[in-house]
Design brief:
Number of domains: 2
Strand content: 5-15%
Number of helices: 7
Distance between the termini: 60 Å
Helix content: 40-55%
Largest sheet: 3 strands, antiparallel
Strand order of the largest sheet: 1-3-2
Radius of gyration: 23 Å
């Protein structure tokens, strides 16, 4: 456009496209605002109560998955996306912090789809990012079982553990 308000010979100049990362961040923010509005409409103060629950859960359990904390919260939101704003509130207040841990439950689901029968130990060893402690796989395993991503195959295998206990063999859920 020229200074006098008229289009130039080729029409209006093209507007620069927004950076896809900025667009994605804006959409995420809008989605979280919608989820929070919905949760607050259904149960005023829910986001604050859920954030307080995350603080208490973190104090009691140390490292955890949000999925584990929400399973112990008495109030169920109409949409699980409502946990996004509650998590953000708790994170911004420094009540919870990311540990750099892994999304092991998702790994178990994906591993189950690739491998017919497996033990949690076999899945853990195939995972590139190992949690610091073996017991860190308990929470993700419960999440994967509760979501029916993996099911007990009814089989066992010997382990390399010093107590020679058996490992349950898992398979993908229905």
């Amino acid at each position: 456009m020229r200074d006098d308000g008229q289009d130039d010979l080729f029409g209006k100049p093209p507007t620069p496209e927004k950076d896809p990362i900025i667009v994605a961040a804006e959409r995420m923010r809008e989605g979280m605002q919608r989820a929070e509005r919905h949760a607050e409409k259904d149960a005023p103060g829910w986001t604050e109560r859920a954030a307080l629950h995350l603080r208490a859960y973190a104090a009691a359990h140390g490292e955890f998955l949000i999925e584990d904390a929400r399973e112990t919260f008495a109030e169920r939101p109409a949409n699980l996306k409502s946990w996004g704003p509650a998590t953000t509130v708790a994170k911004n207040r420094k009540w919870i912090v990311k540990t750099g841990g892994v999304r092991a439950a998702n790994h178990l689901r994906d591993f189950a789809l690739r491998v017919q029968d497996f033990t949690i130990e076999e899945a853990r060893l195939a995972f590139a990012e190992q949690p610091a402690e073996l017991r860190a796989w308990g929470g993700p395993t419960r999440v994967a079982i509760n979501r029916k991503w993996i099911v007990d195959s009814g089989k066992t295998r010997p382990t390399n553990a010093s107590n020679r206990s058996k490992n349950i063999v898992w398979r993908a859920g229905p």
